[in-house]
Amino acid sequence: MARNCYHPTAKAHLHLHDSLSEEQISQLVKICPAGLFTQDVAGKVNVHFQGCLECGCCRLLASPDTLADWHYPPSGAGLTLRFG
Ligand code: SF4
């Protein structure tokens, strides 16, 4: 993971629906291998999309009414995997 290269954009490539249940939030926190979903003490969900691995796990495993939108970052942005 330390060898990955990120080219973040200012605009998020994934968005959540406005009102999520505690169960939906818990799912997101558990699902994301990069730990990008966090919940603050006020209960607000923060999405640290800049570190997205583009694995699609949240898209595939979260309840259908959790993500409002998910698409790959634009060309030239997002994750570049480094090998070796
Ligand atoms: S695509 Fe993968 S890394 Fe990106 S937010 Fe969803 S689960 Fe996390």
Describe the structure.
- This protein is α+β, with helices and mostly antiparallel strands and 84 residues long.
- The protein has a single domain, classed as Alpha-Beta Plaits (2-Layer Sandwich).
- Helix content is 18%, strand content 23%.
- It has helices spanning 22-31, 57-61, and strands at residues 5-7, 14-16, 37-39, 45-47, 67-70, 78-80.
- The strands form three sheets. A two-stranded antiparallel ribbon has the order 1-6. It has a two-stranded antiparallel sheet with strand order 2-5. Strands 3-4 form a two-stranded antiparallel sheet.
- A hairpin with a 5-residue loop joins strand 3 (37-39) and strand 4.
- It is globular, with a radius of gyration of 13 Å.
- The termini are close together.
- Bound molecules: iron/sulfur cluster.
- Iron/sulfur cluster is lined by residues 31-34, 36, 52-58.
Please write out the topology.
Layout: E1 5-7, E2 14-16, H1 22-31, E3 37-39, E4 45-47, H2 57-61, E5 67-70, E6 78-80
Antiparallel strand pairs: 1-6, 2-5, 3-4
The protein binds iron/sulfur cluster (SF4).
